[in-house]
């Protein structure tokens, strides 16, 4: 049941206009759809195949007003075919009436009900659960939608063209594929504003929420206005409709969705108040509002030819939202955080059985490919392109892209072609970043030759592209390596330059150097590779102190920490370099507090396991946990006075503001708190929780306490105060298994799962608990397999209701092959138990079988 990129062929019919009427009813919604179709080639009669899921019941069908002979209509499990013999060789109108049951839709794909509100999610293939349709992104049509319902607010895409009691009409003039369709109906209220585009179009902006939530929608609205201005200023992109609506929904499978003119959001990415949302939540809201808004051009005006091209819109839109955040906040901090996330999720994916290229060429279930590789690596690849062609070249290429492909369903080939045409650069070899899976391993060897007229430093880079499932042999890639040289006294003697590597092994020389410099390599993380170089801890500490590139500076500290942690987890002695270097950094009042916080947060246990396993060492989860705890304690003990002072100094006076500078101080203060809680018996954290004026402080204090096995009173207090707030209760459910001491994690997760308020059918609640346990490395990987069994049981329970969520959460197992034989056997048993389930969804079955195949 696989789909292959190589099999692409255009749809044999041209669809120009789609008109729909919805008579909304919770159990029996009637959908009438009229499609203006024409055969692509009138000489070549073909069957008309429409997609349509099991829940779509055909009521009637006519062609130009006449019902065809029933024998010409063939209903299969996922399609409806009208045979060529029943179709005219000229344009025709196909009308269908169908009935669907939104109340039975637990998969939250298509039209469903969340808290009494009708809403939709159609990407990637949800529209086929609403009506019979050519549900593929290269079939684009204008939409005219009529909604009949007594609910007060009735929304769809485009502009409102008629509003009367019990009825609303919407017209979307921009041709779009079905995955961008949306409909919302419910008892909603709007927080409203307006934006005037630079060419003078006045756009009405609304953020729709449930009554009572209005006071938590202001930040989302501010973020939208900022996004609209930024896209005009930086990309020259204007909005193109009279209204822009955002709706917050409690039951949503992912973060948010860029439906044309009607973005639908998981409510956790819209609703925020200081009392309920953390700094991280505010950051995410701003970034995701921007991301979905930016899709209006990169995704909607220019969409994808087929789902293999998903990274065309997602990689580019992530890249754009990253640029937006770096412009609005701290570019250095944003880059470091993005690299951390990339390593945690995408490198992990690349190392395991689920590795795939940013543009895959085969899938069974497309929903399984909304991955870190498609999104985040897709963005990294664009960052490399920009580095290679320069800012001007990038700007020219993007202008050409918008100019040439507006209105198209485009491909990665189209995308690369605009760069070739705008800059003259041949991108044949570069394209491997899109087609080859895996993280290249780069190694660096240095040779220093002193000389009379100055010494010469030769850097030899070697790249190795390890095999991934289905791709054993790989050719070298183009790798832009940004380097700088730092003199022995700490001054930069060669500023950043980009070395362009195209061979398997390549040397670059710098001559006329006075004394041997220290190399700062892969500045700004100029390529998504792993870099290994023989560097001693003293040199790393030197870079941490002197590097001018903030990423490389942070990376030096990271490497120091990892070298200490990997040694300790193998029972080896740990040098004091990291502990000393951290002391200098903490004391450096000139450094951005957010940067210092990033350096102070020790690598997570999962990251340590990944590092060990990339060195061919089998990670032992409990040993890693113990080693990390010991190092944290040692830092806290060594720098107790410094840390205590810093904790007091970083207190943020005045009312809570979510801006970057206040958030930076809090992040440093809370990193310090996590360390101090290891020796003060929880005193500071308890005090902070008690007086906390915002959720950021509350969660930081609570997390620090839970990690020490404390915090029961605080947990209870949080529950008492916020039992009525779903988003806060998600945090409450998530933090307990995540921060629990590993030996108790499964038991805690189990107890939570028995509670009445564990509303597991809600995706956020399920993700909180199951994802929380999966994120507790030593807890999930408990040697007795109890973590595996617990998660497997819940995946099996979720799968029949919501396959997308079950499949997504199954990635908890994606690293299973890296552990010892005992854990591997238990993980495999759990995976095989899932695979054997009756009626397992295509989603989960594809994921589990790929993971089993790696064993
Ligand atoms: N296009 C949406 C976004 O990037 C995500 C849609 C995810 N869809 C899915 N089936 N997983 O914001
Ligand atoms: Zn997106």
From TrEMBL:
GO terms for MF: alanyl aminopeptidase activity; metallopeptidase activity; zinc ion binding
Superkingdom of origin organism: Bacteria
Span of domain Peptidase M1 alanyl aminopeptidase C-terminal: 538-852
Domain Peptidase M1 membrane alanine aminopeptidase: 219-433
Keyword list, A-Z: Aminopeptidase, Hydrolase, Metal-binding, Metalloprotease, Protease, Zinc
All residue ranges annotated as the Peptidase M1 alanyl aminopeptidase Ig-like fold domain in the record: 438-532
Reactions listed under catalytic activity: Release of an N-terminal amino acid, Xaa-|-Yaa- from a peptide, amide or arylamide. Xaa is preferably Ala, but may be most amino acids including Pro (slow action). When a terminal hydrophobic residue is followed by a prolyl residue, the two may be released as an intact Xaa-Pro dipeptide
GO aspect biological process, one term: proteolysis
Xref: SUPFAM superfamilies: Leukotriene A4 hydrolase N-terminal domain, Metalloproteases ('zincins'), catalytic domain
Cofactor(s) it depends on: Zn(2+)
CDD domains, A to Z: M1_APN
Domain Aminopeptidase N-like N-terminal, residue spans: 116-180
Top class in the EC scheme: hydrolase
EC number(s) reported in the record: 3.4.11.2
PANTHER family: PUROMYCIN-SENSITIVE AMINOPEPTIDASE
Similarity remark: Belongs to the peptidase M1 family.
Name of the molecule in the record: Aminopeptidase N
Organism from which the protein derives: Paracoccus sediminis
Lineage: Bacteria, Pseudomonadati, Pseudomonadota, Alphaproteobacteria, Rhodobacterales
């Amino acid at each position: 049941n696989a789909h292959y990129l190589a099999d692409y062929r255009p749809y044999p019919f041209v669809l120009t206009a789609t008109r729909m009427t919805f008579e909304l009813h919770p159990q029996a919604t009637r959908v009438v759809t009229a499609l203006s179709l024409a055969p692509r080639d009138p000489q070549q009669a073909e069957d008309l195949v429409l997609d349509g899921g099991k829940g779509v019941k055909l009521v009637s069908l006519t062609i130009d007003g006449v019902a065809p002979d029933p024998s010409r209509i063939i209903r299969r499990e996922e399609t409806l075919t009208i045979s060529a013999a029943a179709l005219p060789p000229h344009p025709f109108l196909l009308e269908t009436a169908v009935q669907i049951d939104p109340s039975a839709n637990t998969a939250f794909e298509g039209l469903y009900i969340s808290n009494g509100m009708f809403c939709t999610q159609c990407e990637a293939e949800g529209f086929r659960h609403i009506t019979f349709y050519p549900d593929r992104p290269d079939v684009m049509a204008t939409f005219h939608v009529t909604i009949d319902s007594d609910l007060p607010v009735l929304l769809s895409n485009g502009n409102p063209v008629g509003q009367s009691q019990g009825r609303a009409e919407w017209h979307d003039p921009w041709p779009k594929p079905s995955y961008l369709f949306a409909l919302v109906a419910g008892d909603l209220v709007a927080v409203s504003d307006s934006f005037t585009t630079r060419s003078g179009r006045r756009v009405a902006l609304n953020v729709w929420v449930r009554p009572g939530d209005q006071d938590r929608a202001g930040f989302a609205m501010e973020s939208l206005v900022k996004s609209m201005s930024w896209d005009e200023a930086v990309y020259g992109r204007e909005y193109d409709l009279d209204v822009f609506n955002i709706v917050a929904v409690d039951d949503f499978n992912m973060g948010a969705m860029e439906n044309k003119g009607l973005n639908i959001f998981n409510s956790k990415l819209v609703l925020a108040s200081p009392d309920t949302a953390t700094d991280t939540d505010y950051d995410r809201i701003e970034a995701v509002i921007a991301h979905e808004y930016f899709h209006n051009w990169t995704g909607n005006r220019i969409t994808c030819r087929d789902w293999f091209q998903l990274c065309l819109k997602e990689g580019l839109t992530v890249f754009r939202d990253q640029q937006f955040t770096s412009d609005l906040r701290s570019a250095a901090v944003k880059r470091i955080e993005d690299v951390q996330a990339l390593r945690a999720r995408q490198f992990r994916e690349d190392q395991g059985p689920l590795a795939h290229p940013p543009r895959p060429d085969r899938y069974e279930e497309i929903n399984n490919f909304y991955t870190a590789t498609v999104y985040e690596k897709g963005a990294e690849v664009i960052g490399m392109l920009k580095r290679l062609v320069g800012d001007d070249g990038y700007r020219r290429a993007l202008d050409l892209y918008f100019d040439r492909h507006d209105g198209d369903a485009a491909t990665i080939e189209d995308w690369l072609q605009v760069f070739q045409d705008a800059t003259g650069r041949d991108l044949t070899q570069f394209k491997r970043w899109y087609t080859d899976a895996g993280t290249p391993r780069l190694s660096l060897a240095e040779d220093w030759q002193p000389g009379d007229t100055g010494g010469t430093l030769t850097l030899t880079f070697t790249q190795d592209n390890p095999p991934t499932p289905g791709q054993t042999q790989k050719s070298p890639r183009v790798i832009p390596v940004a380097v700088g040289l730092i003199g022995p006294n700490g001054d930069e003697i060669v500023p950043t330059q980009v070395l362009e590597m195209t061979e398997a092994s390549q040397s670059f020389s710098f001559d006329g150097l006075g004394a041997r410099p220290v190399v700062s390599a892969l500045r700004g993380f100029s390529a998504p590779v792993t870099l290994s170089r023989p560097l001693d801890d003293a040199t790393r500490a030197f870079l941490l102190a002197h590097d001018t590139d903030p990423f490389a500076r942070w990376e030096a500290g990271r490497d120091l920490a990892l070298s200490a942690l990997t040694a300790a987890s193998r029972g080896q002695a740990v040098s004091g370099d990291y502990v000393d270097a951290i002391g200098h950094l903490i004391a450096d009042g000139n450094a951005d507090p957010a940067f210092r916080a990033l350096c102070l947060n020790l690598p997570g246990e999962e990251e340590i396991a990944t590092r060990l396993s990339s060195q061919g060492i089998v990670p032992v989860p409990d040993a890693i946990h113990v080693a990390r705890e010991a190092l944290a304690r040692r830092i806290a003990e060594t720098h107790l006075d410094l840390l205590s002072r810093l904790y007091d100094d970083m207190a943020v006076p005045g009312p809570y503001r979510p801006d970057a500078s206040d958030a930076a101080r809090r992040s440093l203060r809370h990193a310090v708190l996590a360390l101090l809680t290891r020796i003060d018996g929880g005193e500071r954290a308890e005090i902070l929780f008690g007086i906390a004026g915002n959720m950021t402080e509350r969660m930081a204090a609570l997390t620090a306490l839970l990690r020490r096995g404390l915090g029961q009173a605080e947990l209870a207090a949080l529950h008492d105060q916020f039992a009525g707030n779903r988003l806060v209760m998600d945090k409450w459910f998530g933090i307990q298994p995540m921060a629990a001491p590993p030996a108790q994690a499964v038991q805690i997760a189990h107890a939570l799962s028995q509670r009445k308020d564990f509303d597991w059918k809600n995706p956020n609640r399920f993700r909180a608990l199951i994802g929380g346990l999966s994120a507790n490395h030593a807890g999930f990987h408990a040697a007795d397999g109890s973590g595996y069994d617990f998660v497997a049981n819940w995946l099996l329970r979720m799968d029949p209701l919501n396959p997308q969520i079950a499949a997504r959460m199954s990635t908890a197992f994606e690293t299973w092959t890296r552990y010892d034989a005992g854990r591997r056997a238990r993980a495999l048993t759990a995976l095989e138990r899932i695979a054997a389930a009756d009626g397992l969804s295509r989603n989960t079955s594809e994921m589990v079988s790929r993971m089993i195949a790696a064993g």
